[in-house]
Input
Amino acid sequence: MKRRVVITGLGIVSPVGNNVEEVWKNVQAGVCGIAPITRYDASEMKVKLAGEVKNFHPEELIDKKEIRKMDRYSQYAMCAAVQAMRDAGLDDTKGSEEPVFEEEGTGFAAGAATEDAAETSETSAADFDRDRWGVILASGIGGIATIEDNKVRGMEKGYDKVSPFFIPMSISNMAAGNIAIRYGLHGMCTCVVTACASANNAIGDAFRHIRDGYGDLMLAGGSDAAVTPLCIGGFAVMKALTTETDPSRASIPFDAERSGFVLGEGAGVLVLEEYEHAKKRGAHVYAELSGYGATCDAHHITAPAPGGVGAARAMKQAMDEAGIAPADVDYINAHGTSTPMNDSCETAAIHAAFGEEASRLKVSSTKAMTGHLLGASGAVEAVITTLAVENGFVPATINYKTPDPACDLDIVPNKGEEMKIRYALSDSLGFGGHNAVLVFGNKENLEG
Output
């Protein structure tokens, strides 16, 4: 019998806020996190805008000595993971020590989650086997800033003078490793790299790891910090990024005037648990993770398959695994990157997967607010989708002006809507033809 998997903790660092409460408030208000680049001097480059993380203070959650050993993408990941663990009512200690439940949490509903755990649980966190707790934390690019910085240092001073932490700071799996070390998680620990589908694949793989009995609790998500000259330049010469200078007309998914995506950065982490495991410790449940679909277009290194056929198959797989029909889905958090080809192909994929139900669906892209966070995008959107399901609110596609006949869905333009959501999908599609789709179910379904 397949086990049910629930979401009991959330953590986030993003262009629209660095904790869940702040992010959700800004998402509801339709705040745009796109702004001129400050990370480096972009005056001589074509691309001027990005979705940078603002007012980031990792020392509030990470020891300063450890910060110096972490690339920015690892710092984002660790801060999101700490938030998620505290939100789940789990102490910020290693499993070798005796963990206790937090008196106060960090992030949206953390206090409520901890209170639930303290009042209803007959066990402590020490009663659980951390050999069955693990991490699957994705990154599309890893420590690109560290790579760039050490390349310059090597050219100037010689390559024997690069940082001794260059390799562990730059490799893509180290964010997952750092999180496992901090919490003494001895179960599966790995990193998924499937371009912009990475985080959804990580969350989906963690879901199946628990569902099929290999583990009981997993931290899952993704992190990227690729607002760097080389990375921006690389995407720019591919004509993937917009050169728009007005932040309100830069990341405009599904709009006929869209001209490319805006690069963003950040991290999202979810605590996934087997349902009975969560109930045993009295955890607050946000939603159920119900299904996962993963396919490959096998078509082109960057372009999606015509008609979005691969993405449509992933959506159908995810719904089939969740045991639901298209009529049961109320909302899709779309990949919606703001490139001409992606948005039209994703629209076609939704029509193919949902048939006549497509016209009824609410379909929005929160990348209009955050930009495109590459390997972290699915994780940030998973946090937002989880909150949308729990709170009965569909986020808007902000800054929308000009309709495109090729994107003829209800994209919830400019203003979010209150609506009960039974099931929601979150799509992530990546270079190389990777498609990964998650299904989030209302926690009321657990009682059925």
